[in-house]
Design goal:
mainly alpha, Protein Yjbj, Chain: A, about 80% helix, globular, CsbD-like domain-containing protein
Length: about 80
């Protein structure tokens, strides 16, 4: 049985995933080199998305992090 903290974490995670599904279109527009399937699999995890952006666009990790942070700030 999950404790309260685990239930909270699961709820927050589900909420992020739900919001992310709505943001996939905007992310696809921002990073057209990423496929919709890849974006869906990211499930709103910033670190995973940062890695994909860095890899596809062959940019520094710091630049990818800035892009991802900006995207999430604009698409709350």
């Amino acid at each position: 049985m999950k404790n309260f903290a685990q239930q909270q974490s699961t709820h927050i995670s589900d909420e992020i995933k739900g919001k992310w599904k709505k943001q996939v279109g905007a992310a696809k527009t921002t990073w057209s080199k990423l496929t919709e399937d890849e974006l869906i699999k990211v499930e709103g995890h910033q670190k995973t998305l940062t890695g994909l952006v860095q890899e596809r666009y062959d940019i520094a990790r710091e630049d990818a992090e800035k892009q991802v942070k900006k995207f999430f700030a604009q698409n709350k």
